[in-house]
Design the sequence.
């Protein structure tokens, strides 16, 4: 396994809630591992499942809509932490593909909400199942203790995502 690259001067170590210092080298390893994992998963899915060509930004919009229900473009942009014009472009491509539609906003007839279509739900389900199969196959190739370590880290990784603000989007 390649050594992590020192991308910048070391930052001062932070402390965990238990007061224990968080080592910069460990944070760098985590950053590198998450980046490599995401890239490897995206690449392997496209190799194993050539039909999977939906860009991650579009998948993330579909996931958000599946979790929240219909939203205005501005609300989507805030949740994704993207510029509204960027989200408008992504929504346009999803509209063209038939994965989302425009719906009347009951609170404001001048605006529309973007919602998932049945095709969007199916595409998102296919995407999710393909990733689950790929991850399950990869986990099965690991030594039992490595597979267990990955699975045992899930709660901590979920809490890390929450701490980074995934579950607390900025106000629209």
Sequence:
């Amino acid at each position: 396994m390649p050594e992590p690259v020192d991308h910048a001067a070391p930052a001062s170590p932070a402390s965990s809630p238990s007061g224990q210092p968080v080592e910069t080298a460990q944070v760098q390893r985590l950053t590198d591992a998450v980046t490599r994992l995401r890239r490897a998963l995206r690449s392997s899915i496209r190799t194993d499942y050539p039909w999977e060509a939906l860009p991650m930004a579009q998948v993330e919009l579909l996931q958000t809509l599946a979790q929240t229900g219909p939203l205005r473009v501005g609300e989507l942009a805030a949740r994704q932490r993207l510029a509204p014009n960027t989200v408008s472009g992504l929504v346009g491509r999803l509209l063209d593909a038939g994965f989302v539609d425009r719906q009347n906003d009951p609170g404001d007839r001048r605006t529309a909400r973007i919602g998932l279509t049945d095709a969007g739900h199916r595409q998102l389900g296919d995407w999710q199942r393909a990733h689950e199969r790929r991850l399950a196959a990869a986990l099965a190739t690991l030594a039992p203790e490595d597979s267990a370590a990955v699975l045992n880290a899930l709660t901590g990784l979920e809490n890390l995502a929450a701490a980074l603000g995934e579950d607390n989007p900025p106000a629209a």
Summary: Residues 97 and 169 are 27 Å apart (CA to CA).
